[in-house]
Amino acid sequence: MKKNKEPQPKKKRRLLDETTKRLIHELRPIRGWVLLSACLSLLLICCAVAAPKLMGAIVDELYVWTKTHTPDLAKRLLPGAALLFGVYALQSAMSYGNAYLLNNFVTRYFTAGLRIRLSEKLRRLPVSYVDKTPAGDVIDRMMDDVGYMADTIYGLIEVLLSGFLQMFVIALILFLTDWRMAIPVVLLSPLSVLLSAKMATLGEKHWDKHFNLGGELTALAEEAYTNYPTTKAFNREDYLQKKYDDLSERHQRNGIFANFLSSIVQPVIIFVDALAYIVVAVVGGWLIVHRGIPIGTVVTVILFARQISSPLERVAFGLSNVQHVKASARRVFALLDLPEEPDPVGTVQPPTRGRVELRHVDFSYDPEKPLIRDLSIDVKPGQKVAIVGPTGAGKTTIVNLLMRFYDIAAGQILIDGQDVSQISRSENRKLFAMVLQDTWLFKGTVAENVAYGCPDATREQIERACDSAYCDRFIRRLPQGYDTVISEDSTAVSAGQKQLLTIARAMLANRPLLILDEATSNVDTRTELLIQKAMDRLMGGRTCFVIAHRLSTIVDADLILVLRDGQIVEQGTHRALLAKKGFYAELYNSQYAI
Amino acid sequence: MRELLSYLKPYKGKIALATCLMAIAAVCDLLLPTLMSNVLDKGVYGAAEGDTFGYILRTAGWMLLTCLVSLASVAGGYWVVYQAISGYTWSLRSALFRKVHTMTLTEVSRIGTSNLVTRSTHDVGTLNWVVSMLCGNLIIIPLMFLGGVVLCMRKDFQLSLVILCAVPLLLAVMLWMSKKIAHLWDVSDEYCDRQNDLVRERLRGVRVIRAFDREMRAHERVTDATRVMSENMIRANVRMSIIDPLAGFVLNTAAVLIVYLGGVRMERGSGLTPGDVFAMVQYIAIILGAIVSVSFAIVALPHARVAVRRLSQITQSQGLEEDRPAQGLTFSGQLALEHVGYTYPGSPNPALTDLNLQIGAGEWVSVIGGTGSGKTTLAELLLAFRTPTEGTLRYDGQDAAALSPKDVRANVSCCLQKSMLYAGTVAENLRMGKPDASDAELWEALELAQIADFLREKPEGLDFKLEQAATNVSGGQKQRIAIARALLKDAPIYLFDDSFSALDFLTEAKVRMAMNEKLAGRTRIVITQRVVSAMHCDRIFVLSNGALVGAGTHAELLQTCPIYREIYLSQTGGEAL
Q1: Greater pLDDT, A197 or B358
Q2: Mind telling me how many Å the CA of A260 is from chain B's nearest CA?
Q3: Which residue has the higher pLDDT, B391 or A486?
């Protein structure tokens, strides 16, 4: 567990900005518990105040005894000692109780509750967000930022409730005990807060830089290890080593300052504290000698002075972290506040025949660069539509639009005459089975992965689908057959086999429309022949969209759309397009060029 | 552990110095209550001895001096210790990085890239933290404890037994607790990783998940992991939060006992003064503070153990590449495989069997085969990433196993299956293989790879910055930059391992034509599964299941090799037959 991080009184104005208000607002569901914790804190403070008083009284008794030598000292000490023991016991019990409360409610709420809300949020974010944002960024927010908040908010509450209050009460008691000794203590304490605040801000800059450099270092290591073969193939190990060492050195040098400044905060507070202690000793001594106040009073003041330093230290520790927490909170809130994908509630009227029409569709990823302009196609049920074109022509964009991963800017997409913008996204997607170029397997058994599109499938159905996708044989050769756990970076199955599994998945899903995006580019050529047959069977009676570089697979398509820079430049059958001797013919013949 | 700590050796002096400084500070901290008790006993109470206030002032002066010395030495101590630790962390990082780059490909893929990254960042960080704990405050805790006890004993031996009993009791409880918590932390860490993986998986698979309408399930999986993680974490935290109140309770009880027993002993006339009693109460406060700060460290130690174990896996890794000094050889471009076979460690079946092929200098050959045919293994053999487990690979008649891998790689310019680019400018990436290349040469290579136009449109031109993993260019652009890099490097042999997969046929044809012009007379090996990439080569080798099943020209193979014929038919539909 990290040490608590708290705000400081000086920054209070800046502290109460939007983020802080939001944080406080976030606490609403658990405010009852926070309140209870506040009560416990108050009681704790009472204990913390009572203990030195009692201790002072006992020590006083000892001093009195050295003068008077009255008998039965032990007997007279006993009630005080017993009471003191009771107070200490109560204090420990309550402080454990408070920690229990804060952990179980505040920490649970933040670590689990907030993460679950973020996870929930991910469900409703548009695909464009996921495409634009590196996974590491989202994960950082969900893991590190939330974790940091959980650690810190706990401390924040503890400090707001107990730290400041305790300081205030102790100062008050000090004045009531003896104002002459209280003055130096109360004057010197803010000095130490001020000093530590200064150092914390100074340290913060170094910490920021340290963390940034640390991030760069991680990125460099990640790159080096990912590009391992290339680094070696170009004999670049020494160069990279030097680059890494240099960066690491800068990182460390910054770390020295940052760590030093952080570590020195506490000794400085202790020093100022000790100053107060000395002043109390001198003033107290003078008061005893010349004013004849009881020694117990001095003892009490000294014990209180020691107590005032402990909330102070905690406050100081937190100073450098306040901004970090708020930065974390801001990042988390930003994710929570992202606009969500609108989702209509309309349903599809079964049975689906599979007519797909695009009418005057405009679309672009970047408003500055229009990609698809005024695209209109009409696909009859059961037709096979092939989309071809050079890289970057916008072939996969069609998938994004049909699956409604992205929304069109203008025009209409109709399925069986029904405008899809009126249908809920999941209803829309249920019409399609999809095999993407980028195979995706989740961590789970082979069977679970194949049954992804219909979780209720029986083992028999799964095996049948795998058999038609020609993966039954290799699956059976895996260590645990269909129950072998595989994942994205699993080496148990090759890239081609992963592709086969995704084909099996599409087969099992058995949807009326089919999207094949470069589906066969990674599959063994011999298997591919078999897959082609299986695919033909699968495509039978279904409307299919096939995106392929390999023109051989689509010569029999009912309609070939030739895309270039987002525009359909040609459309027709293979034969017609070849006869046209246009762009398609050029593409097709390039296969055989030297 | 010892191995990891050995990097501390150069900093022994600094650490010793820091420890001394910390010790001085600790002694000062302990002296303070003693001086205070003198103020009370002799200054205030010894009024009979004359100038009491003067005594108080003198003692206060001493106290001030003590505080200053303490602050100065603690500051100095931290300054020195962080120098040492930062040096240590630096050398550990550097050594790990070096070590990873001497590992074999097998070893690297066994541990996995993301694991290697975690180890060299997160785990090193943990170790850094532990070492700074050990060298920083942890070292003075026993000192504080012993010093406190000794000072107490000087005041009153019997009373100090109370402290002597309380502290070990407390330490024992803390150790026991840390053991109990360790397991909870392990589970929590495990599920934290799981959460991480699940979210990553979910983001990567967003299209498939949504296509199959499984977002809810994906969300539930994350939620489950989150719950397990936080439950364990909270239980660990709650258990740990016993330590603080418990330490407070034990030591405060000790304080109560001391004042009470102190009174009893004073009454019996042991010569104990109230100032002594008060000093001892304050020692207890110091010891309490020390113990609370050590409790965090003790509980964190299990984390450190995990880090150490994982780091040792790297430092003690066995699969190291043979380190032969490069001789600066230049090959002619001729190479031969004689009965070459390769079996992956731990695999029952060979990936390559009895491969015999001769490639003459300046020849343009292609190796074609489907997934799992052993193509990539062959590429890795040619680049000396692996050594054949059977037979010999010869460059100019010399056994590649006897050559320095560096020499082999200097002579083979390659473009690998996954085009790996580095964060930095395009120019930096291109110059990897030819550091002294002029801008004109760079443009020429980019031109050949059909990517020059793309860069010309960019205002930065050659200085166009690529992000890490080149996420700011498309797959096809990435591949073409990698091709340009390979073309730029001057080498007798060029190896292209599935390097055109992201290019459409038109672009590929252009690249191929440009390449043939530029690389005429150099040995070119094109490893591919696309028949169009292979069909124009001087000679084509057909791989299937790790064995050579055909060799010859396109026309010959169509006649003699049924597998090649099949590949051809499946990919082209046979139009050009």
Answers
A1: B358
A2: 6
A3: B391
| Gap between the Cα atoms of B100 and B268, Å rounded | 71
Q: What is the mean pLDDT of the segment spanning B251-278?
A: 84
Predicted confidence (pLDDT) at residue B572 exceeds the cutoff of 80: no
Q: What is the pLDDT of residue B445?
A: 94
Residues B258 and B192 in one domain: yes
- The answer to whether A56 touches A297, Cβ cutoff 8 Å, is yes
Measured in angstroms, the CA of A93 and the nearest CA of chain B are apart by 7
Which residues lie across from A486 on neighbouring strands? A444
* CA distance linking residue A329 with residue A325, whole number of Å: 6
- Please give the CATH topology (third level) of the domain spanning A12-336: ABC transporter transmembrane region fold (1.20.1560)
Pick the CATH number of A440-510 from 3.40.50.300, 3.90.226.10, 3.40.50.720, 3.40.50.1460: 3.40.50.300
3-state secondary structure of A133: coil
Determine the residue type at B165.
C
Whether residue B324 lies inside any domain: the answer is no
Domain around B349: 335-572
B56 and A281 within 8 Å at the Cβ level: the answer is yes
Q: pTM for the complete prediction? A: 0.75
B520 pLDDT above the threshold of 50: yes
Inter-chain CB proximity B432 and A248 less than 8 Å: no
Q: Which of A248, A267, A285 sits opposite B74 (nearest CB)?
A: A267
Residue B185 placed within a domain:
yes
Q: Which two tokens stand for residue B300?
A: 């964190």
* CA proximity to B34, closest of B275, B286, B290: B275
Judgement on whether residues B221 and B129 belong to the same structural domain of the protein: yes
Residue that is last in its domain, among B260, B285, B315:
B315
CB contacts of A347 in chain B (<8 Å) are none
Phi, psi of A3 (to 5 degrees): -70, 150
Whether residue B303 sits in one domain with residue B382: no
| Contact check, Cβ <8 Å, B571/A525 | yes
Q: Which residue ranges in chain A fall short of pLDDT 70?
A: 1-16, 154-162, 309-310, 312-323, 391-393, 489-491, 518-531, 533-534, 549, 566, 592-594
Average pLDDT, rounded, for chain B: 85
Residues in chain B closer than 8 A to A230 (CB atoms): 416, 420
Boundaries of CATH 1.20.1560.10 in chain A?
A: 12-336
CATH number at residue B560: 3.40.50.300
Number of domains making up chain B: 2
Tell me the shortest Cα–Cα distance from A13 to chain B, in angstroms: 32
In 3D, which of A501, A346, A538 has the Cα closest to residue A426?
A346
Q: Which of A143, A429, A491 lies nearest to residue B210, judging by beta carbons? A: A429
B105 CB neighbour count, 10 Å cutoff: 16
Every domain of chain A with CATH number 3.40.50.300 lies at 440-510
| Residue B576 with chain A: CB contacts under 8 Å | 591-592
Whether A235 and B117 lie within 8 Å, measured CB to CB: no
Q: List the one residue out of B561, B534, B553, B479 whose CA is nearest residue B367.
A: B534
Taking the CA of residue B391 and the nearest CA in chain A, the distance in Å comes to 23
Give yes or no: residues B469 and B557 share one domain.
yes
Q: How confident is the model over B96-106, as pLDDT tens digits? A: 999 988 888 88
pLDDT digits 0-9 by tens, A138-149: 887 888 788 878
Per the prediction, chain A carries an average pLDDT of 81
- Cβ contact, residue pair B93, A244, below 8 Å: yes
ipTM for the complex? 0.83
